[in-house]
Structures
1.
Amino acid sequence: MNDSAGTSVAYQDFGDNDVTVIGFNRRLLAALYDGFLVAFLTFIIAFAIGFLGIFIDMFRPTSDARMQAIILIAGLIFSLVYFTVSWGRSGQTIGMGLTGIKVVRTDGTRLGYGKAFLRYVGYVISALLLSLGFLWIGFDKRRQGWHDKIAGTLVTLSDDDFAGEEATFTPSDSGSSKWVWIAVWFVFALVAPASLVGGALWVLGPVVRRALQ
């Protein structure tokens, strides 16, 4: 199997069925697509909640923190449902569909909603621990992040089908791109935890400020 730079890379597990496991580059692109989609739809949800709040008088200065908390929780719930349902039902989010990849169990079968939820939990863990769980993708022979290890999943090409069959797993990228992954990791290590902490401060800030007054 050749990567985009023409370098042949392979990691054989067993069998003659060649399955391409996807590296960081295409997975990052799919994550960006999904990130923009989730952010946009979360904005729509927040707008709808805010519009409703006008009628139930939630925009008073004394209730700002409560309103912010509701919006943040609604966004988190939407993100959880979006990824869990997408992975559990078809193995693909919209972003993964656009980039021609899917997530499956290590035996090639569909995740189901339980495994999909576990993978989402693993996503959060991968992000919180300085995004090291995502960096791991670039160095793992099967291109599994920590969330994949936790849930027992692989990311493959959409048309690869090896359910119940023995397979040889071939990375879609070469080991020479590890430095690129490390550079991207620095961005994720700063952005992902900062976003989570920033969201918490955004919600809790008014509450702490009032408590100190």
Note: The helical segments are 24-55, 64-89, 94-99, 112-128, 132-135, 146-151, 178-212.
2.
Amino acid sequence: MNKVYIPWIDIFQRIKQSEIDSDKNVIYGVPKGGMIITAFLKNANVTHNPEYANVILDDIYDSGKTAQKYIEKYPEKDFVALYDKRYENINDWLVFPWEKDHPSGEETIEGNIVRQLQYIGENPNRPGLVDTPRRIVKMWQEVFRGYNPDKKPKISVFKNDDDGLVYDQMIMDSGNYYSYCEHHMVPFFGRYWFGYIPSQNGGIIGLSKVARLVDYHSARLQIQERLVHDIVEDIWKELSNGFTAPLGMGLTMEGEHLCKTMRGARKKGVMTTTKLKGVFLDNPMARSEFLSRCK
């Protein structure tokens, strides 16, 4: 995800082009982005009590959590965002002028981490923690690289008979993976077994590329069920691009989830998920052969 700094002129242009700055509107600005925007409205009436407003204004509609809170409490009022990801093709991380991460702003990601350290009872100024916020941000850039399409590995696919041999048996690869649970943002990790049967006119994927794709899809907040699905669908698409689709493909992953091991149930255990396509799904013998090798 790219970081985009919003200039003030863009804020002013959006206000001018919108219909919110009207004398027909009584507007409540959501703290703090929406509240800041209300300071630049010339025609609309501004209130500090949402009960009296007919429009609730925010700077951005992103995950929808803020909006949902106001919509549930005030269903009869319009919730409006100056930047609305529901209707615009916004995939970047927007940084507003009133945020420290902005060259002219006040709020940083590191500052938010400092507040989290304070929340758990730590002293962020003690020697061992002074540089921790910077290290965490640097770590996140690495372990969550799966959100950046520029980091996706280039896939090498070869025609089945490029080496003078048409291979029509099972090809397997296995290895380790590390990911983060999207429910508690703690790691889950384990082993995977990937296998496929190329078709006669199909493609063969480069040996290291399977491992690289596993790492790429793992480098996001995930659930293990989605992880096996995303990897298989991605590799299937690559092998079917300009070639005959594989006869079958499967991926099994075993994972230990620290959200279960170190909290909650506090029980050590392994979760197993499998995604099958083609003959690995439809043919019992092929499915049995693949699963028997996942050890």
Note: The mean pLDDT is 90.
